[in-house]
Amino acid sequence: MSTATSVGATAANDDIAAAAPHYSAKEKRHRIFAIMAASSGNLVEWFDFYVYAFSALYFAPAFFPKSDPTAQLLNTAGVFAAGFLMRPIGGWLFGRVADRLGRKTSMLISVTMMCGGSLVIACLPTYAQIGAWAPFLLLVCRLFQGLSVGGEYGTTATYMSEVALKGQRGFFSSFQYVTLIGGQLLAVLVIVVLEQFLDEAELKAWGWRIPFVIGAIAAVVALLLRRTLHETQTAEAKASKDAGSMSALFGHHKAAFFTVLGYTAGGSLIFYTFTTYMQKYLVNTV
Known about the structure:
By secondary structure, the chain is mainly α. The protein has helices at 2-19, 25-63, 69-101, 103-123, 127-130, 133-163, 169-173, 175-197, 200-207, 209-226, 235-239, 246-252, 254-284. Helix 2 (25-63) packs across helix 8 (175-197), helix 2 packs across helix 9 (200-207) and helix 3 (69-101) packs across helix 6 (133-163).
């Protein structure tokens, strides 16, 4: 009995070993570099998205010239919130692009859009120069960036899970969220460094543009890294009639969709209240 059990266990272990992939050192390096290239773009995307919130204290008067600082910050926060409205649209749009044209194509487009948005914000004229066009163009840029970051989130997570080493997908996919928080921390760090070298008047006059220039340059670097990635989506999957369709999503993953939506909505509310609104509350109230 014990002999039979031992033989069965040995056979099962042999089957698992046979099924497990054996990566060469070159293949491991290639996959790890792909994770780094994909996550670097994700870091830049979130840096560009968050730097708006953290520098709003300084550029608000340039676009919303009201005597009440609270009203100025509420206007800039409203533009920031508008970017969130575009994120689910970006997730759907770039999800279709990723499924039909490939993950790499989707990630290249998203980081290019974020780069363009940051560069335009850095160069935008103020309200004093072009009037109401200034806040309108700022809003357009933020909508553009919201669309980009919405597509970035899902596509990067999918790509990382597909390119990761078998048996370590959870670990390598976690870098998607690590770089999300990393982008936020870098945005804070840039603002803190600028505050050490520039006074408040300089930051409000032109210093607030520097983080957006940094974000645009970093996005170009991320774009070049992402161009080296290999595609993980197969030609058969791209040609499928269900690729990127809402009917396939709700037909096969309806329960998972609403579960993730519920968890994400609650967590995001707490997260952004603490990380984004708290800064404005402390400045204007405490």
